[in-house]
Design a protein that fits this description.
The structure is a homodimer of 343-residue chains.
Chain A: E1 2-4, H1 8-12, H2 20-27, E2 32-33, E3 35-40, E4 46-51, E5 55-58, E6 63-69, H3 75-80, E7 83-88, H4 94-101, E8 114-115, E9 121-122, E10 128-140, E11 143-155, E12 162-164, E13 167-173, H5 195-216, H6 221-232, H7 238-244, H8 253-262, E14 266-268, E15 280-282, H9 284-308, H10 312-327
Parallel strand pairs in A: 1-10
Antiparallel strand pairs in A: 2-12, 3-4, 3-7, 5-6, 6-11, 7-10, 8-9, 10-11, 12-13, 14-15
Helix pairs in contact in A: 5-9, 6-8, 6-9
């Protein structure tokens, strides 16, 4: 193996005139994917580490590069290895990334491994894999730059794991620059990119697909909201319902509870000495009905998310959750097991 | 300038045994930020190109790298340049990225430039900038790898432009692995990550902030929906309103139009010979009221999005738009200028 590069002394003359934490933070502005690089050690054991300094170099010949710190415990093994494998991690492999970023421990314990060229240990479920001949090693300050000639590769459509600003991130595709939101003819009015429009329309259109199942059960929107809320919190007071469903049920809570009680789906839970309040709970029939509807709603969700795409669904949910943290300080009222169901 | 590396002949012996389009696609699985690298040509003119093969190498000394194709028109200038600058692009700089990815033309025309070390042309508005001394050049197949010693850098909190799978992307932060959505105590019931819950709650909580302005105008939800829809389409039939607001207004369209007409906010547009249908339009008072409410709603939006963060807002909107493309085929009915307002 050829090792070329500037003598290390040449770099030693340079000095970091600036704060290295700040430098690190500035470098973190550049988003990257996340890879795990593996090789087979001289003792036959698989080695691997999480690396985001990977990048492509050349198409013909096919070359990629990554770099490894001089003080890495795995340096000697990678310098000696004839082959290494680059695994570009998928969005759902964050735990794998964390595992291989730690020192020591048996990183491969319990993992399904495949065997590649020259006994390379190959991980599964990645976005892409490159099996490389270790072609060149260049000096790069406190790192060695490894160039690999790609001998074999494979890829999947799995969405990528992304690292940015020192944190893991989702990548979601942008609209092409030509796509502009529709605008009203009336200056000052809404455009199609108004968040309230997008949220309202998304909610109403999504809920419209669930509503047909409600109609089949002869239930209205409010009744579904109350039924499903009662599945979140086993014993719920009318006041909690009103807080949890503020802006949804306004003025209708009492009437909706009455209708559901009459229908035999909801009842007032027996009063106990310890907790003398009035709490509502689902009857067996109410619980069965709620679960039927929830199951139908989940099927609607699954179908919608499948069309939206595997990469976009978790990002959308995560962003909506973050939005709720901003606009919905009372969301806690809907959830919780603090009150035990009484027999 | 030291130039080191393997003799190029060593690479020539390698051959691409595989399809280079497929290889390119596999490389595209690794997400990257996007940079523009600039230098000053020997003739004093600024040069620049879009590059995503950038990565960090070393902290001490501070080194970064990127690579440039042998057949690039700018290669000679970059090989000769003593300094180069790396600009990590922000999410709103996609057009700049496209501009600097094209060959020829005066890429710098009309851009605000700053001047850096050694007369380096510096672009503004980036996520980070690194001014480098061109330290080493290594052979990398059909590319040259440039190593720069970072002499100076700056950064901002601007969210990044990301490239993945041959397309531009948003990066949005993931929830930390420890954060798990709340689950119902009842198996089979909803979790906090059910899309319908997230959409409904987001809509209702967002709308709750607008509702106070409606109340001040003594208007209900339905009346606001109709008023704002009439600002989207100048002349609207009752049928179009029903289609556009299906699932929102159900059964209330006629009554809501009547209430708004009585209030003097909506009227039936004069019938013309060319278009004898019955169309509703806003009166001057109705338009003024709608614009007051829309202005208040936009202020609510601005406040919410500011709290959500500059990087997340465009990603959320883009994802909701994509969701609507899946669940809302009829959204076109709400928009359009196909019918001219008559005097």
């Amino acid at each position: 193996m050829l090792r070329v590069g500037a003598p290390h002394a040449a770099f030693a003359a340079m000095s970091t005139a600036f704060d290295s934490a700040a430098f690190r933070k500035a470098l973190g502005s550049f988003a990257t994917g996340v890879t795990i690089i593996t090789c087979r050690g001289a003792d036959g054991k698989p080695l691997g580490l999480t690396v985001n300094s990977f990048n492509s170099v050349s198409l013909n010949p096919p070359l990629v590069l990554w770099s490894l710190a001089h003080n890495s415990l795995s340096l000697a093994a990678f310098r000696a290895a004839r082959y290494f494998a680059v695994h570009v991690l998928a969005a759902d492999q964050e735990e794998l990334s964390v595992r291989f970023a730690r020192r020591g421990a048996d990183k491969f314990a319990g993992l399904a491994l495949e065997t590649g060229i020259g006994e390379l240990p190959l991980l599964t479920g990645c976005s892409a894999r490159f099996q490389c001949r270790s072609a060149y090693q260049y000096e790069g300050g406190d790192h060695i730059i490894f160039l690999g000639e790609v001998l074999s590769f494979d890829r999947s459509d799995a969405p990528p794991l992304v690292f940015h600003g020192g944190r893991y991130a989702h990548a979601t595709r942008r609209d092409p620059p030509g796509v502009r939101p529709r605008r009203s003819w009336l200056a000052g009015s809404f455009g199609e990119d108004f968040l309230g429009y997008l949220l309202g329309r998304s909610h109403f259109r999504f809920f419209a697909q669930i509503r047909e199942f409600l109609r089949a059960e002869q239930l209205g929107d409010e009744e579904f909201y109350v039924l499903s809320t009662l599945t979140l919190k086993p014993l719920t007071s009318e006041e909690e319902l009103k807080i949890g469903l503020a802006g949804v049920l306004d003025g209708e809570a009492t009437r909706t509870l009455a209708r559901l009680t009459e229908r035999g789906y909801v009842r007032v839970a027996p009063v106990t000495a310890e907790d003398p309040g009035i709490f509502y709970e689902l009857t067996d029939a109410g619980r069965a009905c709620a679960l039927r509807l929830i199951s139908a709603a989940k099927a609607v969700e699954e179908n919608v998310l499948e069309q939206l795409g595997a990469g976009e669904a978790p990002a959308l949910k995560s962003l909506l959750n973050r939005l709720l943290a901003v606009i919905d300080p009372a969301s806690g009222a809907l959830w919780g097991n603090e009150r035990e169901r009484r027999p």
